[in-house]
């Protein structure tokens, strides 16, 4: 090539920078938690919510998920949707590198090896297909033909390299059923963005009704302080008082007393009285002074 000849610049496709907060990722985790609970209720005997301890579903930015913890080195990725209407940015991939034996042990609640059989294989296939169908519903993916859900169909594919870059918006999910059996999901950035948009619009729809003042304060207790007419007593008599002594107060029943809040703020006037066998105070509106 002529050294004076200018080299044509490489074509660069600009990409929008996307990043998700911890709260947004927690929203995504909650969507998959519901899908997991629904699947467990169908496929695990005597399953009840919170009856067994389940590993937490983890959602992280794809570029942060390097190493054996998420099996990225030898991942056997398959797309969940085989449709021309779903591109790489909206696609979801799953690593199907688990064994039938782990699924069988989980379904049958067995800690030991299980002898393989055709019936057991069909059970695992049906459970796995229903598992993927639940994930598709949670992630708002088209279901397509049931044959697409079979984990033995298709060849492993490569995740787009752009999804591994910081701020790509792609998300990697560790979806565990127990300590041994887990699946890794990879969500394209457009798929995550669509889910976040849906979750945001749903969270903004409910509106809180404004309660009346009486309803808002109905369950709260308040202390009142009542001031009677003061009484004069010598220091000697005060020092000699013991439990059970009675002080005669000059306060008349026809005389108003002053009611204050616990912190001393003036509230209203009142009268001493009795109601249903209990000592009571009748609250009255204070009389405005005449000028």
Summarize the structure.
The protein has 291 residues and is of the alpha+beta class. It is 27% helix and 17% strand.
Largest sheet: 5 strands, antiparallel
Number of folding domains?
Answer: 2
How many β strands by DSSP? 9
- In percent, how helical is the residue content? 25-40%
- Biggest sheet strand order reads 1-4-5-3-2
Radius of gyration from CA coordinates: 36 Å
* CATH C-level name of the largest domain: Alpha Beta
Overall spatial form: elongated
Alpha-beta content class: alpha+beta
Under the CATH scheme, which architecture of the largest domain would be assigned?
A: 3-Layer(aba) Sandwich
- CATH-defined fold name of the largest domain: Chemotaxis protein chec
What does the average pLDDT come to? 80
**How much strand content do the residues show?**
15-25%
Q: Low-confidence parts lasting 5 or more residues at pLDDT below 50?
A: 202-206
Q: How many individual helices? A: 6
Distance between the termini: 107 Å
N to C succession of SSEs: HEEEHHEEHHEHEEE
Description:
The protein is α+β, with helices and mostly antiparallel strands and 291 residues long. The chain folds into 2 domains: 22-202, Chemotaxis protein chec (3-Layer(aba) Sandwich); 223-229 and 249-291, no CATH class. The protein is built from 6 helices and 9 strands, in the order H-E-E-E-H-H-E-E-H-H-E-H-E-E-E. Strands 1-4-5-3-2 form a 5-stranded antiparallel sheet. The protein has a 4-stranded antiparallel sheet with strand order 6-7-8-9, with no helix packed on it. It starts with 21 loop residues before the first helix and ends in a 7-residue tail after the last strand.
């Amino acid at each position: 090539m002529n050294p004076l000849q200018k080299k044509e610049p490489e074509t660069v496709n600009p990409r929008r920078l996307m990043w998700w907060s911890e709260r947004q990722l927690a929203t995504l985790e909650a969507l998959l938690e519901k899908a997991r609970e629904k699947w467990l209720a169908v496929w695990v005997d005597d399953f009840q919510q919170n009856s067994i301890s389940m590993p937490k579903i983890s959602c992280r930015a794809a570029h942060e998920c390097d190493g054996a913890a998420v099996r990225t080195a030898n991942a056997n990725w398959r797309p969940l949707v085989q449709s021309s209407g779903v591109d790489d940015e909206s696609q979801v991939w799953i690593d199907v590198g688990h064994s039938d034996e782990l699924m069988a042990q989980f379904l049958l609640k067995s800690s030991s090896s299980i002898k393989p059989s055709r019936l057991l294989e069909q059970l695992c296939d049906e459970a796995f297909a229903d598992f993927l169908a639940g994930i598709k519903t949670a992630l708002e993916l088209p279901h397509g033909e049931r044959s697409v859900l079979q984990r033995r169909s298709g060849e492993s594919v490569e995740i787009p390299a752009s999804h591994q870059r910081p701020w790509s918006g792609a998300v990697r999910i560790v979806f565990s059923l127990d300590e041994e059996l887990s699946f890794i999901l990879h969500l394209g950035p457009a798929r995550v963005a669509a889910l976040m948009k849906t979750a945001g619009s749903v969270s903004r729809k409910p509106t809180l009704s404004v309660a009346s003042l009486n309803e808002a304060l109905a369950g709260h207790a308040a202390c009142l302080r009542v001031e009677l007419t003061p009484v004069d007593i010598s220091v000697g008599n005060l020092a000699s008082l013991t439990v059970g002594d009675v002080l005669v107060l000059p306060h008349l029943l026809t005389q108003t007393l002053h009611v204050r809040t616990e912190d001393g703020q003036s509230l209203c006037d009142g009268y001493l009285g009795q109601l249903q066998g209990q000592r009571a105070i009748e609250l009255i509106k204070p009389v405005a002074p005449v000028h």
